[in-house]
Design goal:
Length: 140
Amino acid sequence: MVVLVRSALLLLLVGCSSAPEPKDWLYQQLGAETGVTQLVDGLLVEIEQDPQIVQHFKDTDIARFRKLLIEQLCELSGGPCRYSGATMQESHTGFQITQADFDNLVDHLIKVMTAQKVPVGAQNRLLAKLAPMYKDVVYR
Ligand code: HEM
C-alpha cells in the first residue's frame, strides 16, 4: 500500500514538473541565425526610414554595425555567438541619443518582430534583455 501511494505521488510529481527551458529558447523563438539576421536587416530598413534616428548613423560603418548587432542579439538570446563589439556605454557615448530615440528604436524593433511573426512572449523576453541597456545608450 505504501509503495502504491509513493508511486502515485511520484507519477504526480513527474507529471507536474515541466522540462527545463533550453538555453537557446529565445534564440530559437527569434528564428535562430536566419531569424536574427532578418530581424537586424528589418531594423536597418526602419532606421533608414526614420530621419530622427538615421542622423545618428551618418558616419557609421553600417556593415560593421549590422554584423555586431547580429552577434549581440544572437548571444543575448542564448545563441551560439560571441559579441565582439564595444560596450554599450563606449559605443553610444557622444551621440546624444535621447529617450525618444530609444523609445522609437524599440517601437521599430517591435514592428519588425511582429512582421516576422515572433511570438509576443518572445518579443517581451528580448525587450526585457535590452531595457537595462537604456542607461548606457541614452545621453544625459
Ligand atoms: C538597447 C538598445 C541598443 C542596442 C542593443 C544597440 C546596439 C548597438 C551595437 C551592438 C552597436 C555596435 C557597437 C560597436 O561599434 O562596437 C551600436 C552602435 C551604435 N548605436 Fe546602438 N544600440 C541600441 C540603441 C541605440 C539607439 C537608441 C541609437 C540611436 C537612435 C543607437 C545608435 C547607435 C549608433 C549611432 C551606433 C554606431 C556608433 C559608431 O558608429 O561608432 N543605438 N549599437
